[in-house]
Design the sequence.
């Protein structure tokens, strides 16, 4: 019989307990979203450290996937509409 291990986590900034994991890579880096009073925010969890992934103009951010090189894709909303993003080496491309 297979053994299944479940780990529960919540982004420390998430006061509403709405953390959602949406992507994981082979090195166990996790991306997703959490909600605060100011809206939705993307995050990267890597080795127990949470890094927010919000564009400065965003009203909502969602990190949806991460590859083996640590590149993150997702989308965000701003006053001018919805936009896709790619984070690579800590910078939005």
Sequence:
């Amino acid at each position: 019989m297979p053994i299944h291990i479940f780990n529960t986590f919540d982004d420390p900034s998430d006061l509403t307990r709405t953390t959602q994991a949406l992507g994981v890579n082979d090195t166990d880096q996790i991306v997703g979203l959490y909600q605060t009073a100011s809206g939705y925010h993307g995050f990267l969890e890597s080795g127990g450290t949470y890094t927010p992934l919000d564009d400065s103009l965003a009203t909502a951010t969602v990190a949806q996937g991460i590859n083996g090189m640590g590149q993150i894709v997702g989308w965000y909303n701003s006053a001018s509409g919805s936009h896709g993003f790619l984070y690579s080496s800590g910078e939005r491309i």
The chain has a mean pLDDT of 88.
